[in-house]
Amino acid sequence: MNLLYKSTRNSEKTVTASEAILKGLADDGGLFVPESIPKLDVTLDELKGMSYQETAYAVMKQFFTDFTEEELKHCINSAYDSKFDTEVIAPLVKVGDTYHLELFHGATIAFKDMALSILPHLLITSAKKNNVKNEIVILTATSGDTGKAALAGFADVPGTRIIVFYPKGGVSRIQELQMVTQKGENTSVVAIHGNFDHAQSGVKAIFEDKKLAEELADAGYQFSSANSINIGRLVPQVVYYVYAYAKLLENEEIKAGEKINVTVPTGNFGNILAAYYAKQMGVPIAKLICASNENKVLFDFFKTGVYDKNREFILTSSPSMDILISSNLERLIYTIAGQDAGKNAELMRQLKEEGVYEITEEMRGQLGDFVGGFATEEETKETIKNTYEKTGYVMDTHTAVAAHVCAQYRKESGDEKKCLVASTASPYKFIHSVMTAIDDKYAKKDEFELIDELSALSATEIPNAIKEIRNAQIRHNRECDSDKMKEIVKEILNV
Questions:
Q1: Per-residue pLDDT tens digits for 139-171
Q2: Is-contact 320 195, C-beta < 8 A?
């Protein structure tokens, strides 16, 4: 069966998986979604014995049906290799009474590596399949992690250029250093004066600029996206939820068919949407617990049915979740609107023009799989400290938000199902916040001074990604106002 994709804002036109990956965003500004979510064609019992790479193939072949077995396996094997510091790619660790799925063992020590190590291979394969001669320009906005993971994935990949925008002062020092020291002749990094939502809106506006697209085409370029709006980013994320369930089964932590809950620290909504897709594919997931920090726009949405971005933007210790426009939520809205592209497009118009929309009672009735929760800055710190004191396990700030919300949900609901927490970043990435949470005595120390202390405290080896930036040279120092992003792109590409 050939699975086709359509835009969340126009159901008439369909494209193949490779065309959707190449485009990133649909021409009408919508996001590509599969016409239906495919079911797994292997049993959970068969998945039990599979490696991460084999699981990836079992999941992705159902979505990317215009790729040959050889093409898809080449992409998978090129992505999930020695770039990861563990053969299992995504280890499952029991922490107290929950299971942490560690998604931070890739080149940039954050979960974005799970998808961004394969996206360049999917894109290049898609370009060949569709006879694309233009150079592909990856344009992306980042709240901290996507940027570095995309830069690392695309650095010196033939036929591509990558430009990353990030909010100046809105990412951790280590996140910033990882980006501005990035090597690669085809890489560019720009700090914008504004927050992540300004960066993301600027990138979307560039994608929707038809005149600019023509100018670029004349110069031999075309845009694509590495943000989680690209279906080539989202599908690889489905894999690790399937893999985690199979591992829980293999380790006899759960019985066959037993339902688990999944808690995901959520900003742009892609990571939790991937868990929702895994559930649709047949993984026995009960509740999808959406964990927010103090920018709790998603928590309020699940509670009230109103999505309202008109609020104060709060800078927190979990910056990758400091987001007020959760782009991937549009895919869920389209689904609960009964795949009514017109209804979805109208809600997205309201969001763009008024900053707020409200879904119908009927749509709210279809959100039963989801539960929202949030953690304050104080609760995030307490979770890091208490977990360390009780178990010796050190987690980053984003994972702590999820761990707190997971515990809170259990307490309030009485739901005792086993819970999987998506552990999205290494504590080394947010070292100052993590170490200060454990003990105030670290507050006055520099991030780089704390690296060795965290290593000793957690009995873990310092990741390569951290070792590399200790003495790396700053290579990118461009800055611009958020309304000048288009001009900067043209300048970088000499258009």
A1: 999 987 788 999 999 999 889 999 999 999 988
A2: no
CATH number for the domain formed by residue range(s) 134-218+463-494: 3.40.50.1100
Quick one: CA dihedral 406, 109, 395, 48, positive or negative?
A: positive
Three-class SS of residue 36?
coil
Count of all residues that appear for the chain in the document: 495
DSSP assignments along 172-233, one per residue: -HHHHHHHHT---TTEEEEEEES-HHHHHHHHHHHHT-HHHHHHHHHTTEEEEE-STTSHHH
Residue 338, classified by CB atoms within 10 Å of its CB into exposed (0-12), middle (13-18) or buried (19+), is exposed
Give the tokens for residue 142: 């980042």
CA distance 372 to 450: 34
Which phi and psi (to 5°) does residue 92 adopt?
-110, 120
The candidate with the shortest Cα–Cα distance to 99, out of 392, 433, 461, 399, is 399
Q: Can you list the positions of beta strands (E) in 19-114?
A: 32-34, 92-95, 98-102
Query: From CA 374, how far away is CA 318, in angstroms rounded?
Result: 12
Q: Is 24 left (phi over 0), alpha (psi -120 to 50) or beta?
A: left
Q: Which one of the listed residues 13, 39, 83, 112 is annotated catalytic?
A: 112
User: Is 6 a catalytic site residue?
Assistant: no
Q: In the predicted model, is pLDDT for residue 226 greater than 90? A: no
The class level of CATH for 90-107+230-425 reads: alpha beta
Summarised one tens digit per residue, pLDDT across range 424-448 is 999 999 999 999 999 999 999 988 8
Residue 264, both tokens: 């995901």
CATH 3.40.50.1100 residue ranges for the chain? 90-107+230-425, 134-218+463-494
As a whole number of angstroms, the distance between CA 343 and CA 176 comes to 39
Residue 164 β-bridge partners: 140, 189
pLDDT digits (tens, 9 = 90+) for 14-64: 999 999 999 888 989 999 999 999 999 999 999 999 999 999 999 999 999
pTM: 0.92
Tokens standing for residue 302: 């699940």
Whether the CB-CB separation of 232 and 123 falls below 8 Å is answered with: yes
Could you give the count of Cα atoms lying within 13 Å of 428 in the half-sphere of its Cβ?
28
Distance between CA 4 and CA 263 in Å, rounded?
Answer: 30
If one counts every other C-beta atom within 10 angstroms of the C-beta of residue 364, the result is: 15
